[in-house]
Structure prediction request, 268 residues.
Amino acid sequence: MTKRELIAKCDFIISIGSMLADNKEDVRNSIIESIAKTNAKFTYMHPIDNIDLKLYYTQFIKYEVGSEEGICALLLDTFVKECDEKTRKFISDLDLGYISAESSAGEEEFEEAYENYKEARNKLLIIGDDFVEHEKIENIIKLLALIKKHTNFELIVLNEDLENKINSCTNFDLEEIEELKSFNGTLVYKLIHENQSDELIASKTFANIAKVADGDEIYINSKDEKIKKTLKVDETLNGTIAILKVKNIDDVFNGYRYKQVKIEKVEA
Prediction:
């Protein structure tokens, strides 16, 4: 069954770890078609709200950059009701208050998602590729594999290598969720696009914090790189995460999709 066919039959969809933009347009459009045909409930989970999805999602769960391991643990706790004793003990030992606080995702939001899950006949979990270079990816893979094993979710994994690792996972020795890494200040999110852009797309808040303005030429400074772009203020964006469109994931800022950066205005 193709991704489009799988999405088309579902009446409850969660997506996590993807803005479902640009090279994910086929998946996004399939979700929109499913909503139109089956009145599917759609929960969109990501650190960045996507203005193109506002008309379609039933629920938006915003989580903190870097907290994906905790978010997957919350998904496990919410949707896994019958499982082996080892998994049950891991779930019962989770510090849900800490995880919820550090990820900025409320337990009541997951409860709302679970109510929609219970009412649905065909459930789908879409896993994006934000996870791929996460420092806790091995534990994330185990959490996702357990969700696949112990729930009624069908899974669509947008990264082939990640999909293979989830499908082949047999080691469920999970690490305790002890500390969720936080990312403060101004951040850049790499968004895969068919054409690399000369612009850094940012909110007004981001621009104010960075002390730059729409149209300014800027340097984006990370720990290991310095690149030159033009700042483009997008009034539909909020928060302190700017979007950098890249053709390939390794074009700039190797590793995890989000980078903590400092912005420097190019002096005339």
